[in-house]
Amino acid sequence: MEKRYYQKDIETMEPEALRSLQEQKLQKQVRHVWEHVPYYRALMEKKGVTPDDIRGLDDLRKLPFLSKADLRETYPYGMLAVPLSDCVRIQSTSGTTGKRVIAYYTQHDIDLWEECCARAIVAAGGTKEDVVQVCYGYGLFTGGSGLHGGSHKVGSLTLPMSSGNTERQIQFMMDLKATILCCTPSYAAYIGETLKEKGYKPEDNQLKAGIFGAEPWTEEMRRDIERSLGIKAYDIYGLTETSGPGVAFECEEQNGMHINEDHFIAEIIDPDTGEVLPDGEKGELVFTSLDKEAFPLLRYRTRDICVLTREKCPCGRTHVRMSKPMGRSDDMLIIRGVNVFPSQIETVLLSEGYAPNYRIEVDRVNNSDTLEVYVELTPEQFTDTVSGVTAMERKLASAIKTVLGVNPVVHLVAPKTIERSEGKAKRVIDRRNLHD
Ligand code: DLL
After folding, report:
1. 257 with 285: CB under 8 angstroms?
2. pLDDT band at 434; cut points 50, 70, 90
3. Which is nearest to 117 in space by CA: 83, 153, 87?
């Protein structure tokens, strides 16, 4: 297969040249922040660092970290590095875990962001002949506008569907012969399930690829979606603070996401000590932007836990790859002292033949943590096994116990009783916080 890139020179740049490009840009970006963001300048002064101390990548670790707490502290304008009149757009986080974070963009920032998304679309096989159905939410969320802009840059026909109204999604998908689907993996699974209910087979649609991200999803979930839609499913990563989707994206190897290193430097740190870890070790991902005008962030702690690899990728891209984040460090549940990521439970459910419709409930009863997992039976399982449900629950509980080391109570529930997600799925209810 012919290799496809959106910006070949940059995406396949020799590592030495890439490093020197990053170093040049880093010096400029640090100076820009120093001169225009008093809040961060104060943090640098506190550490005794000036822009003159930052000459290369090895100096990066001299710079202070930024976290979401800093962004909340400086809400709404404190991190802005250009006059507001130079900005053309804001986007924002959903604010489910506190005050919203607002990201600002100049036209230049929008162009860079959309180019990153265009790289992702081309890596998934997109061309100007494609019909790209964008069913990430439009509005303050970055998913819709990011992929929308990227699709325009590629020259594809863009369907600005936004999320929800699954009937209409399916009608447009079929009538307009969409070839690339962009949405959260949980919504992709829901669309696949609905197509099946309507009697469509995977080969009845014209889709060839999906670009799915914005929430953690497992390899098992990927295969499930690929089967139900008859496509190849690509992962895409990003966060509002760094512009949105497209910070990193998968190529045809489906083996980690290439980080757009001409625009972002990635580091992995130990989340407890802040120490920088070598490639290959698991830790918290930290980003430094290199080209941002309005909302540049230096050493921003994402709280996403993953691993970086610089092993050569057969696709020809030279940019470092990040593993799938297994969830945010703050998504991790500690149950009876054991660290549990919801994605571990998802892996077990799908490998045991269940559909990805589940809810995890954690509580504290008589000073002891409880873990309950509600899992939907598929319609086939439901009719087959009315009498065998208890045995199935026990079997699943034991499979989960083997992986997590914690004993769950499993409840198998009737099909269609767990709420479907059209955006980011909310799979965990932790009631312990309510009692504290
Ligand atoms: O979710 C941006 C985005 C939109 C990415 C569309 C991909 C596609 P936020 O709402 O600010 O931005 O949430 C960012 O979502 O820190 C991760 O924890 C999580 N996340 C994003 N992409 C992935 C992914 C958008 N591919 C937060 N896998 C991030 C796992 C992801 N988690």
Report:
1. no
2. low
3. 153
Question: SS3 breakdown of the chain: % helix, strand, coil, rounded to 5?
Answer: 40, 25, 40
Cα dist. 237→46, 142, 234, 365 in Å? 33, 11, 10, 37
Prior bond of 64 cis (ω within 30°): no
CB 290 within 8 A of CB 29: yes
31-41 mean pLDDT? 98
- Residues in Cβ contact with 274 at an 8 Å cutoff, skipping those fewer than 6 apart: 65
CA-to-CA dists, residue 431 to 55, 397, 418, angstroms: 49, 21, 18
Radius of gyration of the chain (CA): 22
Spatial separation of the C-alpha atoms in residues 428 and 394, rounded to whole Å: 21
Region 8-328: CATH code: 3.40.50.12780
Give the class (CATH, top level) of 334-430. alpha beta
CB-count burial class (<10 Å; 0-12, 13-18, 19+) for 351: middle
SS3 per residue for 172-185: HHHHCCCCEEEECH
- Output the ligand 1 site: residues, CB below 6 A: 93, 136, 142-143, 213-216, 235-240, 244-245, 302, 304, 324-325, 328
The ligand 1 atom nearest the CA atom of 211 = 8
* Alpha carbon of 214 to ligand 1 centroid (Å): 3
Q: What is the pLDDT of residue 326?
A: 79
Band of residue 1 on the pLDDT scale cut at 50, 70, 90: low
The domains of the chain are located at 8-328, 334-430
pTM to 2 decimal places: 0.95
Amino acid at 431: R
